Amino acid sequence: MDEYTAFAKVYDEFMDNVPYDDWTEYIVSLLKEYDVKDKDLVLDLGCGTGKITRRLRDCGYDLIGVDSSVEMLDIAIEKESDRQEIEDGSILYLNQDMRELDLYGTVKAVVSICDCMNYITDFDDLVTVFKLVNVFLDPKGVFIFDLNTEYKYASIGETVIAEDREDKSFIWDNYYDEDEKINSYGLSVFIKADDGRFDKYSEEHFQRAYSLDEIKTAIEFAGMEFVTAYDAFTRDEVRNDSERIYVICRECGK
Fold this sequence. Notes:
Blueprint: H1 11-14, H2 20-33, E1 41-45, H3 51-58, E2 62-67, H4 70-81, E3 92-95, E4 107-112, H5 123-135, E5 137-148, H6 150-156, E6 159-164, E7 168-177, E8 182-192, E9 198-208, H7 212-221, E10 225-231, E11 244-250
Parallel strand pairs: 1-2, 1-4, 2-3, 4-5
Antiparallel strand pairs: 5-11, 6-7, 7-8, 8-9, 10-11
């Protein structure tokens, strides 16, 4: 998984339209519903630059952040080191591929937000991730994650998305293979250098659309218990036209 190398440099700036506060409020409401309390240890799996991680910490949880991108974690750690009282509620960041997750102990909850699970494009790898989550959850601990849906990918289809700002820009060339259910996009990022020229960076991203039935099967194969799924940011059932869903499952077997 080599995504988010060059894009890490500008990720937070281009994602400034994401309502992270609202997302965090929704996640916290789910955590509380499943008895995850203040000071409980929570793992943010695929934490990126720590936007959600830091907000969850500020809501009173103890946090571990795991991501496979060194570049994204460097930014997360830099943001963390800017805090004045670093010893008070500091976040432990670990550079790991989620398919090889290895923690020092168990956690009360695992969250994985912003379609991290879609980046696991092989079903067997997805089962492996779920099994590892199950291993590192406390007994009856909760796993909350979101997914982009097949409907969303099909809606985007073959599209070019671009954004131009004064000192940076990107071009997103998207293609969705409906047969393989793989969404791929080539990302070209242009960043203004000190000499006024623009440096170009390119990377390829691949995500897979999973049906809810496939997710339930992977959860079952991993030895976990499926609890429920929602249309994102609601308590409504998943619809055919849901673009993002949240899935909740529990540790089972300890």
